[in-house]
Batch of 3 targets.
Target 1
Amino acid sequence: MTTSDNKPKLTEISTLGEFGLIDRLTGSINVKNPETIKGIGDDAAVVDHGGQCAIITKDLLVEGVHFDMVYTPLRHLGYKSVVVNLSDIYAMNGQPGQVIVGLAVSAKYSVEALEELYAGMLLACEKYQVDLVGGDTTSCPSGLTLSITAIGKAEKKDIVYRSGAKHNDILCVSGDLGAAYCGLLVLQREKQTFKANPDMQPGLHDYEFVLERQLKPEARKDIIEILRKAGVKPTSMIDISDGLASEILHLCKNSGVGATIYEEKIPIDRRMAQTAHEFNIDPTTCALSGGEDYELLFTISQKDYDKIKDVAEIHPIGHITDSGQGENLFTSSGQLVKLAAQGWDALKK
Amino acid sequence: MTTSDNKPKLTEISTLGEFGLIDRLTGSINVKNPETIKGIGDDAAVVDHGGQCAIITKDLLVEGVHFDMVYTPLRHLGYKSVVVNLSDIYAMNGQPGQVIVGLAVSAKYSVEALEELYAGMLLACEKYQVDLVGGDTTSCPSGLTLSITAIGKAEKKDIVYRSGAKHNDILCVSGDLGAAYCGLLVLQREKQTFKANPDMQPGLHDYEFVLERQLKPEARKDIIEILRKAGVKPTSMIDISDGLASEILHLCKNSGVGATIYEEKIPIDRRMAQTAHEFNIDPTTCALSGGEDYELLFTISQKDYDKIKDVAEIHPIGHITDSGQGENLFTSSGQLVKLAAQGWDALKK
């Protein structure tokens, strides 16, 4: 495209956002190698080398975008950076086994600070029985960037993609939603208070639940194990990193289906709701658009429902429809509204 | 450690450098999973899922540290970012099959700029028959950071580590060394000239060879294929990213051996030597400490020597000794000097 003076017109990244940009950059890519089972477009890539499949995923965490050093302890950051990657492996119904750590640090960080960061990463590795097997450590002009790659495994027949949801399947989520976002709101408020009056002690004692969900999330290894023991293979699955609404749209787009969910079925913790009200935000909005919950969103066949209906940590929130019906929320007040992805997007303004 | 006023004493990263820092952060890590064949300490990690082994490596490229946008075309940067990772897979005697791209970009980059970057990455994928299978794209406060993960495969018995060199083995390198560093010197000089006088045209026409080695390096897939066809499995191997001297020290440390190399045997291209002389640098210094050559350094048994002695692109440069003798260079003037790692270290001052 050119303007009238023949200079090429340049497009700001923020006009496309993360998913628009990825579509534009990778839309024309074709896979060449027969062992490449899954390329771009799921929680992780899948490669079949003849035994179990390798499942590989990567997430970047950038200072000033994904975390603020004012209120993020380095040990927690290390823990979280590993967990968010393991979450992607579980979302493929895989078992993570290894992580590789890429670290770009500026001179403001001391060796002791990086030891704290590693202590957190190794704590997560210990808890999830994962090996830290390598990486790349380098300097950068400012801040800290973490790039973690996680490697998992699964039998080819057990892998669950985003693309398998079928009409009439039941849509389920694990745990509860929205708390990580409320934790972030509390931390941002305390940062402002501290900037206004540095002698003020932070008032964080009433917010332990939401703060822990923000600073030290866990990946739902337990849910994968419960489903396996119950003999249930989800028809599709994704982890909730950008908010429930955004993930439902991904899942429906990849599966070529629609979905209807019910507001009253969305699992919300009382402590999250209390914090949301304090900030004058609807708890449902936190659940739909908050992000960083790292819960699992998945679909199961109706025939499997009895096998999981008594599991306290699994909540049916709606069902899959045909694609013509789109993605809808049936609100507590009885209205049917279209779901929109208003989740967090690092690339949008 | 504490100082007299009981405040903990913090250590600057630059006092340790990359390898010292990695040792300190990862020295105590033990591997838990039986499928983890190789963890930290080689060109790549190796995981055995029952078929062929998966080989996984990662490299970060940071604007202002690894590249300067003033003289690095984005298409070349994309190409190089893939190639340097494939080089690590070849250095394990593996066959790369997939790459995953992590990209953190600031708002100064346009969508069209990122399309150029991707065009370069996809060109490398095409040339080396590798699939781009996923990634993570995010914003960052400044600059551009690329984090590429490459995935390869190999039969377990074929994988070559840094640790297998034996007394009396022959030390070989592929291609020629030092040219990438000379290319960097030329680009840096032209940048200074341009800053002093922006109307000056860059004088790059006499330097095509060294510039291409810096801006668009290739990975030595061909060497791996030549060795395989010749029926030679190297006893140890590493790729030359930080300079020949540094890589020899890595290989000897990991193998528990020493080495003696001969200055007159180090392969140097006439065009590199010419540029080095122009900058008043000894060409041997460029080869030993320049870095970014992405040639392969490997050892073979004496019995295999006849099988490769006529290959023009493979050069014997010395032999492995026992560890007590250390790592030495026999200079053209007949002196024996200790090899020191003076290669590039992003974390040292």
Target 2
Amino acid sequence: MVESIEFIVEPLGMRISAPRETTILNALSRFGIGLPSICGGLGICGKCVVTILEGFENLNPTTEPERRHLSQKAIREGRRLACQARLLGGVRIMISPEELGSKPRLQVEGLETKVELDPAVSEILVKASPPTIADVRSDYRRLLDAIPKGDASGNPKPILEGLRLLPSRVRRYGWMVRLVLWKKERVLDILPPRSRRRLLGIAIDIGTTKLAAYLLDLKGGRTVAVASAINPQVAFGEDVITRISYAKDSKGLIRLQKAVIRGINDLIDECCLKANATFRDIYEIVFVGNTAMHHICLGLTPKTLGFAPYVPVVQEPLDLPSKALRLKANPSANVHVLPVIAGFVGPDAVADILATGLHEAQDPCMIFDIGTNTEVILGSKDGMICCSCASGPAFEGAGIKFGMRAAEGAIESVEIEPRTLKVDYKVIGNGKPRGLCGSGVIDAIAGLLRAGVIDSTGRMGIEEGFPGLRRNDSGQREFLIAPAKETAIGVDIALTQGDVREIQLAKAAVLTGAEILLKEASLDASEVKKVFLAGAFGAHVRPESALAIGMFPPFEIARIQSVGNAAGTGAKLALLSMKLREKAKEVADKCQYIELHTHPSFKEVYFRALSFPA
Amino acid sequence: MVESIEFIVEPLGMRISAPRETTILNALSRFGIGLPSICGGLGICGKCVVTILEGFENLNPTTEPERRHLSQKAIREGRRLACQARLLGGVRIMISPEELGSKPRLQVEGLETKVELDPAVSEILVKASPPTIADVRSDYRRLLDAIPKGDASGNPKPILEGLRLLPSRVRRYGWMVRLVLWKKERVLDILPPRSRRRLLGIAIDIGTTKLAAYLLDLKGGRTVAVASAINPQVAFGEDVITRISYAKDSKGLIRLQKAVIRGINDLIDECCLKANATFRDIYEIVFVGNTAMHHICLGLTPKTLGFAPYVPVVQEPLDLPSKALRLKANPSANVHVLPVIAGFVGPDAVADILATGLHEAQDPCMIFDIGTNTEVILGSKDGMICCSCASGPAFEGAGIKFGMRAAEGAIESVEIEPRTLKVDYKVIGNGKPRGLCGSGVIDAIAGLLRAGVIDSTGRMGIEEGFPGLRRNDSGQREFLIAPAKETAIGVDIALTQGDVREIQLAKAAVLTGAEILLKEASLDASEVKKVFLAGAFGAHVRPESALAIGMFPPFEIARIQSVGNAAGTGAKLALLSMKLREKAKEVADKCQYIELHTHPSFKEVYFRALSFPA
């Protein structure tokens, strides 16, 4: 029997297995992923380029056709032709999202929270009087003196670039100009009165896996374009810990910083194109992300986030010139960075709080921002506590045998008829399934728990009694979700005993965090008036399934609400409202961080949390 | 008879004449200026390089030896070998100051005013506690929290560069670091506790002709080094008006800006060398200069200073990152630019006021900052008025037949015995004289007025009655100051009727300004309690001579005081004291500018001012 090699396809996060010596091109096509290949795998067209992220040594040496089509630099950077590279061991490869036919689905929608429009950037049309022999005030002073009272605070400070344009501009436009101000205290730009320049701002959510950008009209508050993409840092490692480790030396840090800045600039371009705007229209950028992403994006070492006590370099909100980060925006644009709460509770959690209004809630509410790290926040206007749970990547499909991210071809929901064990499922994009994403796995486990196929310890019952339940080639128990004839990958898609164990570990981490916060606040789950699920997984998981597997304390189901990309929404709000931006600082100062691993109840709570509800 | 060609030698501002077809090398050597020349003018050594600033077309075409020694670029930039270039018409040439044997004397000394030390830049030694599992504040927050109360205002803002170094620095030095703060509100640097880094600031006076730099220890207030040089912009034109015209298009502006920044950076290097410091020790720069120099140095167009009503682009004091001007200082250094009063009353005048304390004087005082433009300020703590007088370059030796700047070889004082007309003079450097500088010319005219050789209309009396008085080759009356045998230039040095007229025009401009200010303030000259003469000319002119020629209203001689480079002193004070810096803004806002040319009394006062006192 031929040895089977398992390999991972990014950015899908899909695990694929293929016989040893199979070319990557053939292995991918067996799973419905067709790379562009004109010559049909003969090494002639050079189109089927892939990037090897890990395990370069587990492939045959580069061939003559590869040396012909790829530069030495490309080869050093891990590029191979998929038709030439044969699998001899485990690898992780990256294919460009365009080649997947469709981009992976990224959560960009969030709550639409109403907010009083009060952005940092504003503009005034100023009509100054021309100089005379009796009035020799400077050009700039003339503008200041002509600003209606209340529209600027005292003397807004000029910027050198603006002053350089000033004399010709005022004289050309009859002393009438548009002043763009930041916080009414600094002049960002001096524009002709009928300039087509728009006042835009962009909110950016920097996730470990994905980036989302929202281009907003700062005068009306409307979102004029949205774009999202995989974080290009994925090429350097899947999870935060790998990135932190990669960024330990300054060379790695700079590489990661450049990658994410490039990704953000691409999104800015895309948003501008969609909104028919130019990057010069962007006068402010707000960004959020977890603390590690925050540090890397600013070029700060995330090293100390890698070991206890996980101390960040800086937690204050920052205002920086966009030039300092080489972001594509107006040269005088400001970058506002929301504050950090702790090493693993970053500006994204602050944005979650702003978006859900937790800090103003009358009664205790809770936020779960579910990902590789799950941030849990409990509180109300009277106070807030938070923690970070190492939930791992299982909810995103990693570590699950047929797991994949919530992209086209993923089974996103599963219903199992409790008596007959008949399976019904829904696939993203409505095509043939390629694998299971997190919400699908949770549904399947919840269904099997209800049917009694899985007991409260997580053990799958004996196979005889249950249709679909069986042992696979490696002797592991598994439950068939989609038979080979229905799938895009030509093999059965099943949920294994191992998958159940992965989910148990992940859900235990989340539950432990929630339970400890409730304990700290001396609250019972029933006293939590609202539960907000944030993030892509949170938007798609069915609350009844999540409750069924005991991922959360026993909340009332009606109180659970999905809020989508709340971090993105919070960033948008901070872009539109100075009051909320001030509030963000207060929130970060006030929200108390609880370190789970050193909490006296941690082990006890965690042990209980590993079980499924009886 | 061979035609005589007159040419100008910079940076001396010396006018030299030589027969047509003379080589520049020979012409210079006749006036005691020996360029390095090993081959003795044969075009072999290539050492006698000069730069032709104006009149390149008035020389013979470049010769074969020049094409051998000079690059094409050098030739395009106006370089010639002095031994090969023959004078066919008027030229202006530049020789490097080093080749003059000694640098021209520049006024760098000023008043030593005592001031309470209160600089913008300060430092604190901070000892923070290391993080523990129970205390996970960020590195930066730890430092802030450890600052003793009163040593910083609230939360000083971090700079990105500092944050990037922070984690390794605090851990390496046991959480003890030196924080360098700006205005106690921004962190400029985070240093090891025993770093040798010094806290220095540099005050720079940007004159049209010369630059002066004062390196100060911001902790003790001591001046640790002083340097001065000719403003490299001199190569682009002698006076402010020529520079303004040159900077009319952006290419010219950038060229002038680069030239002055290069000059300043050279002074910074020189000061650092003298003080055994590095440019990274410099955390703040204050600069002053006239409004045109201020604009050009900031890269702002001085175009509108070139025509009525002479409006500046900006008059507010500015704080800019040193990087924005490419000044050689610590990367986080701040540049503070003192405010402008008007188009021709710049930050240098504000500095003059700070240095003399005019704004706090109980009784009316007056400042004359004498140069090509002479700023006159009249006032006390109760109010200030000022004006600018187009005195022209005569006080600096230009337009005077044997005129030159106050450099080595200049006759700086002249005494004429009223009865015998015997002349006694003093030469800068005590060598043989090469020409007359401004103070020498004023002395000579004052002496001749006293002796009755010049009457109140400025006419030189008939020659018969007076020894030394005669007609020169061009038929003009002149008075012999130094006979050829005593001079370094091999010809007689004399004061001509034309020279007297030049001085009459110049002194009339100054006197008119002073009279109009007194008129505006309804004051009599006798009510002015102190008269401060600022600038190089002011430091060397003898008050009795200045009064004798009627350069000033009839002040009491005892009340006239020379204050040297008051602008430089004022810049130093603004570097050492935040209070004075605040005061400077008030002063600039309060000091009222009087435009002379449109003043109703201008013509009448000016006409009277042209005469010498009877």
Target 3
Amino acid sequence: MLFKSVTILNEHFDIEKDVDVRIEDGKIKEISKDRLEPYDATRIIDGKHRLLIPGFANVHCHVPMTLLRGRGEGLDLWTWLTTAIFPFEAKMTADDMKIGTRLGLLEMIRSGITTFTDMYLNIGAIAEAVAESKLRANLCFGLSAGEEPFDQRRGVKETLDLLKTVGTNQGRVKVDLGLHAEYTSDEETVRGVAALAKEHQLIVHTHISETKNEHQGSIERHGMTPLAWLNHCGILENPVIAAHCVYVTAEDLKLMAEKDVTPVHCISSNLKLGSGVADIGAWQKAGIPYAIGTDGAASNNNLNFFEELHLVSLVHKGVTKDPTFLQPKELLAAATMRGYASQKRTNAGLIKEGYDADLVLIDLDKPHLVPENDLASHLCHSAQAEDVCMTMVGGDILYEDGTFTTLDEEKILAEARQATKEILARI
Amino acid sequence: MLFKSVTILNEHFDIEKDVDVRIEDGKIKEISKDRLEPYDATRIIDGKHRLLIPGFANVHCHVPMTLLRGRGEGLDLWTWLTTAIFPFEAKMTADDMKIGTRLGLLEMIRSGITTFTDMYLNIGAIAEAVAESKLRANLCFGLSAGEEPFDQRRGVKETLDLLKTVGTNQGRVKVDLGLHAEYTSDEETVRGVAALAKEHQLIVHTHISETKNEHQGSIERHGMTPLAWLNHCGILENPVIAAHCVYVTAEDLKLMAEKDVTPVHCISSNLKLGSGVADIGAWQKAGIPYAIGTDGAASNNNLNFFEELHLVSLVHKGVTKDPTFLQPKELLAAATMRGYASQKRTNAGLIKEGYDADLVLIDLDKPHLVPENDLASHLCHSAQAEDVCMTMVGGDILYEDGTFTTLDEEKILAEARQATKEILARI
């Protein structure tokens, strides 16, 4: 495949016009300011009024929760969880979760997400749906304190089963080890997760200091912040994906900078649940490479990565009262390359020769993207998911001009409606 | 025209399913839970998976500024204004403004805006473009201090000329009187605007306390806040549209509640320029009926009303740390009915028999709107401009399923690109 005379977001996150990009064997083979010649049977894509960018990495999600979209609107957090969320989740089958996953995959592919990091249960079923879609994902089961000995827990079994299925753990679907959160764990669980991650060289995916209550509660329970306690129990000897981090101390920041911790900024969810606004300026200053996540659709309420870009850019300018804060370049690096790096996916997340062809083509021929005064700014402040005209993963086109190639949109919408009805009838 | 078995946002801003809605002579003629029979030659629109809502009122805009979208990204406010905005605006002709207006009209119609309130110059040219589009608008020239006597100012002349053109000032295009802001005015100008508005029974559209500097500066200059000073000079004897109001005192709130003042919340722009977040909770408590605006595209950076809904809902929950703050009902009333009321358009902005048929049809058959757990929440948190499948003003369809009926999209995009190039060449 050959993109001819396309505008790209290059490896330095600068806009570069009139470039040819050749895709071969799932990789970006050649990038040239000179015209490249097509091979025989090469598909040529005209780059006029098109912008080619690396795909987005959505680094914190609970994808099956699309079925809970909009449930319990306007309730406080505890009432929302106990009356709207938990009773529904308790009645979801593995099949329901697969259906919710497929619905979320449609949303993610449509908004230019090419890889995501997820925590839920029934990860074998979720992995099957993801594999069908050809999207990339790092999946984990969110372990919490339990009655059984650690080794006999369902989450451990599901994790090890999926590890066996995916083999080398280097493919499109990868397995992480999930630790739900400090406040839902005991020391046995945390130490068990730390050791198991070490043994299998897995990333640990967890929630850290999402709310003030949780943060303060940990200090009361352990005399330590959630991150400090997890470190105390050995978790930070592994690479860590730390969702939220709305409340972190100077010592937490130091830990994050020293260890291999990627905080994930989930701005929609933090706003919607009234958790607060994470101080990503402090993360930046401490040199911590953060990433961006949608969180689940129940608290977002969609999986649209462009909305996250807009929100992150706008809200922090407003809250800091500094319109110069967080330039598009920085934000776009967090949204792509840094997310891929957090998943331990190398040679990915950039438009660079030899890198994975995880690419998104944006149609610039839209009123809200004209004139093209600053396309990096347009991406962060004006572009919409609808502007995505192609989503490609490893050279495979998953979406193009209204059509999903690996997923049956109409069938998924019908199944999602039906599954939701049936779950509600069981509550 | 007859909508059959459609879901509507009813006059109480509740979701009501399976309703028939008949449109006749530009009005909502009949709303019925029973099936209505079509007259001969009535067009029937199947309401399956469709949501019919009143159109949005965008109550603060500078529509020609679409041509400045993305200019001066990442600059502080003063550098942005003086190096990116003013030099460009100085080279814009009336024709350029018409082109920028048309570009903005495309965006607004596409995102379900059916009426807007605007401040700029060359309002005769802008009015022509709006009239062609059949959208509704309250237009004004933003007057500021000048050398000439008040009566001889260009803005006064343009206002009176347009008033003559529109006749009774009760049509789709209406004329307001614009006062740019306290900090760009002198007492002669403000008193002149107050008297002229009184004489012609016009709404005064102005900017109030957008930034802390402006607010404090007024107190230094006049010993009064901007709103108090405008009141002192007689402005508040007229209905007032007060954009921004990020910084207002308890006395300002009292004034707003007593007089006919509609503060307009422009959250994208206030965030993007680092101005801060207006305390709309205090407005609510004081019983002040606020509306919502996009501001110009230079500081937004688009005219997409769904983004404003999302931002207003999410940001205030996050900033107040109260997930129960600002329920969809309240927000949707501000976005529609209250905006129309601020423009002195009666019997409009609601789905109610006898009201103007200013309606937007939303396609619910989208992954991010499934399942339909709570459609009012979906509108505020998940719906996209792309979900609008029809925008209707006064019974006229302005947009349907990808096609603008009154505007030539392709031509407008080409003209906007060309005009921008030529303006840049003149700087």
